[in-house]
Amino acid sequence: MSDKEVTVFTHPTRRQALTLMMAAGSAGLFMPNILGKGEAQAAPPAKPTGKVIIGFSQEPTVFNPHMPHIEVDEGVSFSIFDPLFGIGPDGSFYPALAREVPSVENGGISADGLTWKIKLRDDVKWHDGKPFTAEDVKFTLELLVDPNFRSWRKTGHEHVRELTVVSPTEITWKMAAAFAPYASILAATFIVPKHAFDGVADKNTAPFNNAPIGTGAFKWVNRVAGDHIELEANADYFGDGPYLERVIYKYIPDLTVLYTQFKTGDIDVIGLQYITPDHYDEAKGLDGKKVDVVPMATVESFSFNMEKPQFKDPAVRKALYAAIDKQTIIDALYYGLPTPTESYMPQQSFYYNPDLPKHEYNMETAEKLLDDAGWELGSDGIRAKDGIKLSFTNSTTAGNHIREQVQQYLQQSFKELGIEMKISNLPPAVMWGDYWMMSQFDSVVVGINFLTGADPDTSDYMKSTSSAAKGGAGQNTWQYANPTVDKLLEEGGTIFVPEERKKIYFKIQETVRNDLPLLPLFQYATVRGHKEGVDGVEPNINVRIDSWNVASWYWAS
């Protein structure tokens, strides 16, 4: 971005302020196509051919993309649904259901950011053959803020007013306030069909939620719970592709088994949670396989339920952080692949704060923090204060053997301090269901991509009103509440100049680093792989899962 462009966006009401929203990636994240780099690719087939089996370690269980869900569910959503426009690996937006990405220049967004006009394609059909229209867009945006619907995200959408269907191919609305992250939010908002909910009294239990109908490149066929999901090519797809007849999402919870099935060829693409670092040396030499290390925006953390009494004392959280030998965990268990971090913000982001206090592993410091805070050892060897024992459970996905080793290592370290950590791991579908979403846990080891596309807004995760357990819409499963962070998030959403926004998000990172609702361990570097001959697989750091462009995948003949 040039200096001239920066000086133009001095206030969101000035001319072209919203142009920045359409170029969020220039001040956000990017990911070059390093899978297949330098390789000549064959042309895709003239009609869908063959199938690809994608292995996931977690089972997708949420098929309405607007209900609370995690990354793995989006793997299926990208196949079935489309947004108005999406975001590519370089951070730029591309049109999908919209004929063009709205901007100030094309009249899609007013200069003050308050009026939006979206022109839609006229050649799109839902999987059941009914036409896609502006009524579906209106329904989707209204569904997200429906107080009777368990929405996964209201952030940004709550500013929308006066939704007006001008014609089947045009919709307009007003914004109660200009909101800088909204373009990135729309790029992550899949449109769902209004007619699928006609006559449904409770949208939370609609038949659609278990048999989704989309506009995407693939159509729902069936789900075998605990095993796989099968999709078939949408012959009426409006975009390029699909080039595959079928896509199978296979659920393999044990990461060693997941790798073994990739190694033996039972799966074609190894998806979430990818190849574990302990298998990397072998994997990169496998015949007929393409394997690369790819950075992700996801950050691994030891996260707290802040409403649990033992975690309300900041001294406890700081002591636990001091007792974590982060570098040894990275080197010994993750083979040095991930990068240690102090922030939830990915380090490739324009908004990443590199000046946060550096973590120091020091058991003496941890012990002193607890002693000074009045946590005294009991006869059972467990510290307590005011009748509260420093004892808690820690949970993660059963079958993730490296995380389980991390837990065992931490359990021993904490025990030396008089802290009891009991390990209670669960199957993925249980772990990341209400147990996580409704804050039923004590503490967890979890990896999260906190951003929406390249935008730094984390209202869904950090805002006090975004806790589902407290009746909000969002993924603040920590039940974290800090008025300063709430205020900064509100302010950050109104600023459109990257350099000015950066100050806000630097301060948010400082505050979260001080409060420690989560103990940041490292930013992911994932080992990804696919069979040679599967073309079109491309990493995209601006989305939360790698099957974002499965419509473009094909077998090279």
From TrEMBL:
It holds the Pfam family SBP_bac_5. Keywords: Signal. It comes from the Bacteria. PANTHER family: D,D-DIPEPTIDE-BINDING PERIPLASMIC PROTEIN DDPA-RELATED, PERIPLASMIC BINDING COMPONENT OF ABC TRANSPORTER. This is Peptide ABC transporter substrate-binding protein. It is found in: Periplasm. The lineage of its organism: Bacteria, Pseudomonadati, Pseudomonadota, Alphaproteobacteria, Hyphomicrobiales. SUPFAM superfamilies: Periplasmic binding protein-like II. Its main location: periplasm. Gene3D superfamilies: Dipeptide-binding Protein, Domain 1 (3.90.76.10), Dipeptide-binding Protein, Domain 3 (3.10.105.10), Periplasmic binding protein-like II (3.40.190.10). Residues 94-465 form the Solute-binding protein family domain. InterPro entries: Peptide/Ni-bd (IPR030678), SBP_5 (IPR039424), SBP_5_dom (IPR000914), TAT_signal (IPR006311). Belongs to the bacterial solute-binding protein 5 family.
